[in-house]
Design a protein that fits this description.
Layout: H1 19-23, H2 28-72, E1 76-81, E2 86-89, H3 91-97, H4 101-104, H5 116-128, E3 134-142, E4 148-159, E5 165-174, H6 176-249, H7 256-264, H8 267-298, E6 307-310, H9 311-324, E7 331-335, E8 341-344, H10 346-363, E9 371-378, E10 382-389, H11 396-399, H12 419-429, E11 433-438, E12 444-451
Parallel strand pairs: 7-9
Antiparallel strand pairs: 1-2, 1-5, 3-4, 4-5, 6-8, 9-10, 10-12, 11-12
Helix pairs in contact: 6-8, 8-12, 9-10, 10-12
Bound molecules: adenosine-5'-diphosphate and magnesium ion.
The site of adenosine-5'-diphosphate has 21 residues, from helix 10 and helix 12.
Length: 457
């Protein structure tokens, strides 16, 4: 026997009827209505489910879309909370750090930098730019192999709907690649500039060569006959002097008109002056002839037949020649391979070496111990001679003009400014090049490169 439950009162004071009481009097019609209602509810449920599935599919689609974008990003992307704990990363970041997504999630972003300095810097950026973000902050990220990858980071704050800071979105681009590309670009640019300068220089030298060749050709004949004539004049003057002296000694004072004319025309002064005047003319004419010779050599007016020879021997000979007239305080050291095979004119190459040794001697003349080191190298296709002295070096403003004809910083009589331009012409005709520079530790450096004579195959 079950105890009878007391009836429960409803809000309006009436009592809740018992279930048996409720079902009393429910007829078939009511049942049908209930079943119809249930049908409707079921239909509604079905529709909701279809809509839900459609929404789910759309959601999945957009999820896939976002994931594909994140996957194809070459830049790295990290989303973290406001303490720096990682919430989301893209595959690029996983690749650079060498860690997978589950390991990275929850890790502090600061633990992923390469060293303490970078970690501190990242923390301070995170703290001080949590509201405005920061751009192009370069920090090293620890790479998979334990090394460091320099990355340029951008920090952007992530805010909630109410504007509260909930974290940071960090994007970054590894700059190693960029740097390498930039370095390569700069190198190419430098090479291009150098080639352009060389081109300009050879063009300038070529047109100078043509001009100088014309001038030398025009001057050659007149100066030859000036010199020839003045030498003849010197001989004639000597004879005239002897004759006049004889006349005077024979006592031409007996003819007063002649005596008068002698003093009026200052014949004795003239006889005294004549010899130094003619000597001056000869000296001037000879200097001019030497210059014209130099110009002819610069512009290759006189070519010699090419022969095979050892440049090392030529260098030693040139050094001996210059050393003859050099003070003992000037020393030349040579470090040369025994053989420097070359094809061309040994005489002209000797002149080049003599010019360079002479210049080193003059550049170091004012100091107590002048030194020149000539070193040689024999490469597969080229041979090189390097002249390094311990003089004052070449002023920057002179470097661009050194090989111009008549460029000199020496007083008149000491330098014609032709030595290096002649050398340039000779070296160029041998298919080589000559470059001047200053040594970082002082002194001038002249680098001569010539194509070596290769034995016929
Ligand atoms: N070894 C060197 N050290 C410093 N300056 C030099 C050296 N060699 C050449 N020069 C500079 O180059 C100029 C031109 O040289 P060069 O053509 O031989 O003419 P020159 O010797 O007659 O002056 C020199 O006047 C000098 O200013
Ligand atoms: Mg000289």
């Amino acid at each position: 026997m079950t105890a009878k439950r007391p009836a429960r009162p409803l809000l309006d004071g009436s009592l809740l009827p018992e279930p048996a009481q409720l079902l009393e009097g429910v007829n078939e019609k009511v049942w049908i209505e209930v079943i119809q209602k249930m049908d409707e509810v079921y239909n509604d449920l079905l529709q909701y489910e279809v809509a839900l599935e459609q929404n789910n599919a759309a959601l999945e689609e957009s999820h896939r879309f976002i994931a594909s974008i994140l996957a194809s990003m070459s830049d790295i992307l990290v989303v973290c909370d406001r303490h720096g704990a990682i919430e989301e990363v893209n595959p690029a970041f996983q690749r650079y750090t060498g860690r997978d997504e589950p390991t990275l999630k929850g890790t502090s972003i600061f633990d992923l930098f390469a060293d303490d300095k970078a970690r501190d810097k990242a923390r301070s950026f995170f703290a001080s730019h949590s509201h405005d973000g920061a751009q192009d902050v370069e920090l090293p990220l620890q790479a998979e192999d334990g090394g460091a990858v320099p990355v340029s980071f951008n920090w952007t704050p992530r805010l909630s709907g109410t504007g509260k800071l909930i974290g940071m979105v960090v994007t970054g681009r590894p700059v190693g690649e960029l740097r390498r590309a930039y370095r390569e670009l700069r190198q190419t640019h430098e090479d291009l500039k150098r080639t352009q300068q060389q081109l300009l220089h050879s063009e300038k030298m070529a047109s100078l060569g043509r001009l100088v060749a014309g001038v030398a050709h025009e001057l050659n004949n007149p100066i030859s006959f000036v010199l020839g004539n003045v030498l003849a004049l010197k001989r004639y003057a000597g004879r005239l002097e002897t004759y006049l002296e004889a006349v005077h000694n024979r006592g031409c004072d007996c003819i007063p008109e002649l005596e008068e004319l002698r003093s009026e025309l200052r014949i004795d002064r003239i006889l005294e002056d004549m010899s130094p005047l003619i000597d001056g003319m000869i000296e001037g004419a000879e200097r001019t002839r030497d210059i014209v010779d130099g110009l002819k050599r610069f512009s290759a007016l006189d070519r010699e037949a090419a022969e095979r020879f050892n440049l090392a021997e030529v260098v030693q000979r040139a050094v001996r020649w210059v050393a003859k007239s050099a003070p003992p305080s000037f020393t030349v050291r040579t470090e040369l391979p025994a053989e420097l095979p070359l094809r061309g004119s040994p005489g002209q190459l000797q002149q080049v070496v003599m010019n360079l040794v002479q210049n080193a001697l003059q550049a170091t003349a004012a100091q107590p111990g002048g030194e020149l080191l000539i070193s040689g190298e024999l490469g597969d296709r080229e041979l090189r001679l390097i002249f390094h002295d311990n003089g004052p070096g070449i002023p920057d403003e002179a470097l661009g003009h050194l090989f111009d004809p008549f460029f000199t910083t020496k007083p008149v009589g000491e330098g014609t400014g032709l030595g290096l331009s002649i050398s340039y012409g000779i070296v160029e005709r041998h298919g080589g090049r000559i470059v001047a520079s200053n040594h970082p530790e002082g002194g001038a450096v002249f680098r001569l490169t010539l194509p070596r004579d290769l034995p016929a195959a």
